[in-house]
């Protein structure tokens, strides 16, 4: 099954409610599969030249994080601040992101780069989404939008790396409910272009495919249109960028999705019941997205 | 069609009790003796909040009023009962309905009335894809439009659509009949438009009346099976 959720806050004054409203959505969808869960949170741009790098280090201690940032700041010029909570940390740094990421990868085979961006922070962990929410304080986050996922693994391993959201490039993430039947052929094509994969998960192929199209100059709409041609299988995809939340379903639309829109927010979920707690939901415009149509909301 | 009776209305609040408890209560209601008296109890369900499986498997004469939005499988396998939803419903409302009536005042998601054997399903607004998939004798009246692949492999019964039908309508249709008042955005394999007879108009008029929905039977198009997929053609053997 798997469950997807997304919430975009329209009014700046309500951004402080982002976690309070979205965390119960994700928790509720834990019924659709609780092998692992993840959430990408989009907040304000972290400043000129700076990036947020989301990290996961299995069994990390505070000392591990301290030595990691010490090694990084020894090796490069630039500011670097690290906010750690258990095995997860957000590194805010002005060090050139490609260099920082390459350096971090060298530090430990256990260290995962969950995402990079000016606006995006990514949280992923194995287990029920409720655990993720409590462990990383996701009820308290603020910002403009979130993209969340809870996973019932069917085609590849249960691990932090195999959890959604998948990320590629900067400020770009994707969650998927469904299964692709041609991820390996897509992957082989992309690998021949020098694009590296971290897992054997089918969704990673979709994520890197779309990011490859974006980096080749396509608009997100054009990239998704090519995705409709190339991605074979079942999918409801929810995509987050620094400024947008984008939803698409495959031509058969076998995987569920429902959207609810008010003047204050747009909320997306696999099932309506995870939206039922939202304020004003009874008067919201609730609809089921049509197959093979691009739905986009901008911050 | 709502029955007049003197029995007290029973209120259930799903914010306080589980769907399982509600369903157990509904299953335990006395059956045949109620039918004999002609008085059907009314159960009002508050705060459904999109929960799944509300009022499934009912086998007794009872009126259930769901005051809000339901989730998946609402009133699935219904027999005898009259279930009304004052809101929207999720996937597979009234799937495998045997008899009785399920009336949704709002929209329904995918697979409304899937495999229904008998009874009446009314959706006042739209349904999404696969409405009436594999229906086997129930009647479905949709006040709005239906999504793609509706009445896929439908075997018996009637689907009346007052609005439009998305692509793939009636794909691999057996002996169910479809009537559409609005636009048809594409027929599925082996479905074809046929002339509306006076008997067809009467059938549509009767179902609209039972559903309490407006519509001009003369404006409807009749879609039925061309029956060309019923038999395997030996002369096509070389194509495989």
| Distance separating the two termini of chain B | 53 Å
Shape of chain A: globular
Q: What about the largest sheet of chain B?
A: 11 strands, mixed
Q: What is the CATH superfamily classification of the largest domain in chain A?
A: Aminohydrolase, N-terminal nucleophile (Ntn) domain
Number of strands of chain A: 16
User: Beta-strand percentage of chain B?
Assistant: 15-25%
- Considering residues with a beta carbon less than 8 A from a beta carbon on another chain, report the largest interface and each chain's count: A-B, 17 and 20 residues
The CA-CA distance between the termini of chain A, in Å, is 29 Å
Structural class of chain A: alpha+beta
The quaternary structure here is heterodimer
Give the key terms.
heterodimer, A: alpha+beta, Alpha-Beta Plaits, 16 strands, 27% helix, 32% strand, globular, B: 240 residues, alpha/beta, 2 domains, 12% helix, 22% strand, elongated
Question: Can you put this structure into words, describing what you see?
Answer:
The complex is a heterodimer of chains A (299) and B (240). In chain A, helix 5 packs across helix 6 (202-215) and helix 6 (202-215) packs across helix 7 (220-230). The model of chain A has no long low-confidence stretch (mean pLDDT 97). In chain A, strands 7-2-8-1-14-13-15 form a 7-stranded antiparallel β-sheet, with helices on one face. A 5-stranded antiparallel β-sheet of chain A has the order 9-10-11-12-16, covered by helices on one side. Chain A has a 4-stranded antiparallel β-sheet with strand order 4-5-3-6, with helices on one face. Chain A contains 7 helices and 16 strands. Chain A has 299 residues and is of the alpha+beta class. In chain A, strand 4 (80-85) and strand 5 (88-93) form a beta hairpin. The radius of gyration of chain A is 18 Å and the shape is globular. Chain B is an alpha/beta fold and 240 residues long. Chain B folds into 2 domains: 1-87; 112-229, no CATH class. Chain B has 3 helices and 11 strands; from the N terminus they run E-H-H-E-E-E-E-E-E-E-E-E-H-E. Chain B has helices at 19-28, 32-37, 198-211, and strands at residues 9-13, 42-46, 63-67, 82-85, 101-104, 120-123, 136-142, 156-161, 177-180, 191-194, 221-225. Chain B has an 11-stranded mixed β-sheet with strand order 1-2-3-4-5-6-7-8-9-11-10, covered by helices on one side. Chain B is elongated, with a radius of gyration of 19 Å. Chain A binds chain B through residues 252-253, 256, 258, 271-277, 282, 286-288, 290-291, and chain B through 49-52, 68-69, 71-72, 88, 90-91, 107, 109-110, 128-129, 147-149, 166.
């Amino acid at each position: 099954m798997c469950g997807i959720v997304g919430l975009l806050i329209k009014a700046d004054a309500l951004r402080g409610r982002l976690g309070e409203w979205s965390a119960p959505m994700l928790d509720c969808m834990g019924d659709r599969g609780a092998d692992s869960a993840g959430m990408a949170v989009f907040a304000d741009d972290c400043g000129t030249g700076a990036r947020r790098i989301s990290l996961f280090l299995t069994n990390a201690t505070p000392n591990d994080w301290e030595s990691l940032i010490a090694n990084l700041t020894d090796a490069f010029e630039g500011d670097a601040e690290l906010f750690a909570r258990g095995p997860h940390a957000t590194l805010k740094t002005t060090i050139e992101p490609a260099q920082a990421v390459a350096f971090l990868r060298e530090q430990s085979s256990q260290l995962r780069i969950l995402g990079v961006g000016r606006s995006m922070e990514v949280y992923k962990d194995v287990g029920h989404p409720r655990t993720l929410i409590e462990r990383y304080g996701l009820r308290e986050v603020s910002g403009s939008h979130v993209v969340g996922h809870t996973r019932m693994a069917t085609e590849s391993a249960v691990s932090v790396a195999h959890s959604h959201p998948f990320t590629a490039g900067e400020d770009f993430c994707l969650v998927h409910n469904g299964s692709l039947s041609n991820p390996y052929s897509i992957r082989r094509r992309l690998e021949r272009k020098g694009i590296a994969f971290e897992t054997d998960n089918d969704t990673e192929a979709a994520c890197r495919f779309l990011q490859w199209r974006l980096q080749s100059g396509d608009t997100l709409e054009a990239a998704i249109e090519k995705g409709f041609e190339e991605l074979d299988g079942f999918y409801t995809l929810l995509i987050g960028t620094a400024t947008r939340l984008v939803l698409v379903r495959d031509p058969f639309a076998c995987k569920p999705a429902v959207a609810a829109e008010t003047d204050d927010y747009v909320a997306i979920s696999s099932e309506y019941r995870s939206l039922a707690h939202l304020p004003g939901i009874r008067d919201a415009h609730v609809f089921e997205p049509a197959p093979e149509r691009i739905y986009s909301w901008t911050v | 069609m709502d029955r007049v009776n003197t029995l007290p209305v029973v209120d259930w609040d799903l914010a306080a009790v589980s769907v399982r408890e509600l369903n157990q209560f509904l299953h335990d209601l006395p059956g045949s003796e109620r039918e004999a008296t002609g008085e059907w109890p009314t159960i009002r369900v508050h705060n459904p909040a999109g929960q799944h499986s509300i009022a499934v498997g009912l086998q007794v004469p009872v009126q259930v009023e769901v005051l809000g939005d339901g989730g998946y499988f609402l009133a699935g396998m219904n027999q005898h009962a009259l279930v009304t939803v004052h809101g929207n419903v999720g996937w597979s409302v009234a799937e495998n309905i045997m008899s009785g009536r399920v009336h949704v005042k709002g929209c329904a998601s995918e697979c409304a009335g899937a495999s229904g054997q008998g009874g009446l399903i009314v959706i006042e607004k739209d349904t999404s894809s696969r409405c009436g998939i594999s229906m086997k004798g129930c009647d479905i009246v949709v006040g709005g439009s239906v999504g793609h692949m509706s009445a896929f492999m439908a075997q018996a019964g009637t689907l009346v659509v007052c609005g439009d039908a998305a692509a793939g309508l009636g794909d691999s249709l057996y002996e169910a009949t479809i009537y559409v008042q609005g636009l048809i955005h594409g027929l599925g394999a082996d479905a074809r438009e046929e002339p509306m007879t006076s008997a067809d108009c009467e059938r549509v008029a009767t179902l609209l009346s039972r559903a309490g929905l407006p519509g001009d039977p003369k404006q409807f198009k009749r879609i039925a099976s061309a029956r060309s997929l019923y038999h395997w053609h030996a002369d096509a053997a070389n194509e495989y």
